[in-house]
Design a protein that fits this description.
Layout lengths: L4 E2 L5 H5 L3 E7 L4 H17 L4 E6 L4 H6 L7 E6 L2 E7 L4 H9 L2
Parallel strand pairs: 1-3, 2-3
Antiparallel strand pairs: 2-4, 4-5
Helix pairs in contact: 2-4
């Protein structure tokens, strides 16, 4: 079972450069972000080693927030080999997220 990774400015590029990665841009003060946390754990468990499920705290990693032009959170990006292939804003259910990963 895979766990949700917490990425930072320093390891983001290395972790997202190969394969499929779901990245949730969030902040500790964001209510919907907190509700999305357990859903991301379920998604990580379901996709296993076929994809990485990760979170980026935009308060601690402002360079990434600026780079990805984050204006609303939660902001969910699906990257494949480092390139954005899908992006969503707001609460999403497990099925939507798993399907987005499978379609990447």
């Amino acid at each position: 079972m895979s766990a949700v990774k917490h990425l930072t400015n320093s390891d983001f590029d290395a972790e997202t450069s190969k394969g499929v990665v779901l990245v949730d841009f969030w902040a500790p003060w964001c209510g919907p972000c907190k509700m999305l946390g357990p859903i991301l754990e379920q998604v990580a468990a379901e996709v296993g080693d076929t994809a990485i499920v990760a979170k980026v705290d935009i308060e601690e990693n402002q360079d990434l927030a600026v780079r990805f032009k984050i204006s609303n959170i939660p902001a969910i990006f699906i990257l494949k080999d480092g390139a954005i292939v899908n992006q969503m804003v707001g609460m999403k259910d497990k099925t939507t997220l798993v399907n987005a990963i499978k379609n990447a």
